[in-house]
Design brief:
- There is one protein chain.
- The chain has one domain (about 5-295): Rossmann fold, CATH 3.40.50.1820.
- By secondary structure, the chain is an alpha/beta fold.
- It has helices spanning about 40-45, 75-80, 95-105, 120-130, 155-160, 170-185, 195-205, 215-225, 230, 250-260, 280-295; strands at about 5, 10-15, 25, 50-55, 110-115, 135-140, 240-245, 265-270.
- It is built from 11 helices and 8 strands.
- The longest helix is centred in the middle third of the chain and has 15 residues, at about 170-185.
């Protein structure tokens, strides 16, 4: 697996397709390794004429870990945000956006189509805000604006995502936990095959298990606050994709994102939750590729 220095840290990435084709940079979400972008989707985008790069965000997978750096607890983060006080955090979403641009720099890519899912959508939004000259198009998937007035996640989805995972020594418990997370945040229209889901969760555990990273990423999300005023400055052609049955980032988050970005187009998918089901590979690949080609 290739690794390079980007924005002063080591970033793990994978590079697919012809280097002469337009580049799509895939940015994954909270606590999610690059492998959460299904290889089927990557290959479908390559088949549609794109070079595709997926990478591990800082503090997850095989990229740099901020070992020993403490983030504020969830209760403190929530209380400070309610009073409009910016918490001190190990790093920000803007730092993570700089990682994405640093990776493009390291690979000699001047401009790219930026695609982000969930927290990755937030990072992608900030790439478009802060580095407009590097962005050919923006696609924000199952993400949101940070607007505090939007409906919160369903209790079950929030609880399963923030539950402390079992110890690393208990592999079976870790697999069961991972499968439960995937089932809970996924949509009812596209249930995962149990055997394939187990295999994917187990492969992720074997690749990297690092529960210390997500709390620092959560702190970065909370500290970023409401992005709507910043999103209004985006000039890149923007597509917003959102599952109509997303229990974690509700559909209103996608609608708010599209409303905040000038000229953005919203595509909603019935039955889709907070995941990228392989059953939707062609649908998602067509939406992303057609948007990029039109841009």
């Amino acid at each position: 697996m290739p690794q390079t220095e980007a924005n002063g840290i080591q970033i793990e990435y994978e590079d697919y397709g012809d280097r002469d084709d337009p580049t799509i940079l895939l940015i994954m979400g909270l606590g999610a390794q690059l492998t959460l972008w299904p290889i089927e989707l990557v290959e479908a985008l390559v088949a549609r004429g794109f070079r595709v790069i997926r990478y591990d965000n800082r503090d997850i997978g095989l990229s740099h870990k901020f070992e020993g750096v403490k983030a504020p607890g969830m209760l403190k983060l929530v209380l400070l945000s309610r009073f409009g006080i910016k918490p001190r955090v190990p790093y920000t979403l803007s730092d993570m956006a700089a990682d994405a641009v640093g990776l493009l720099d390291a690979l000699g890519i001047e401009r790219a189509h930026i695609v982000g899912g969930s927290m990755g959508g937030m990072i992608a939004q900030l790439v478009a805000v802060e580095y407009p000259e590097r962005v050919l198009s923006l696609t924000s998937i199952m993400s949101t604006t940070g607007n505090p007035k939007l409906p919160p996640a369903q209790k079950e989805a929030f609880a399963v995502l923030t539950k402390r995972p079992p110890p690393a020594t208990d592999e079976e418990a870790l697999v069961a936990h991972g499968m439960n997370v995937a089932r809970t945040i996924g949509g009812p229209g596209y249930p995962a095959d149990e055997g394939e889901l187990r295999e994917r969760v187990l492969a992720g555990i074997h690749r990297s298990f690092y529960p210390a990273g997500p709390p620092r990423q959560i702190a970065a999300i909370v500290a970023d606050g409401d992005r709507r005023a910043r999103l209004a400055r985006i000039t890149a052609p923007t597509l917003v994709i959102h599952g109509e049955d997303d229990p974690l980032v509700r559909l209103e988050g996608g609608k708010d994102t599209a409303a905040a970005i000038p000229g953005a187009r919203l595509e909603t998918i019935p039955g889709m939750g907070h995941n990228l089901p392989t059953q939707l590979t062609d649908t998602l690949a067509d939406l992303i590729a057609d948007h990029a080609k039109a841009a």
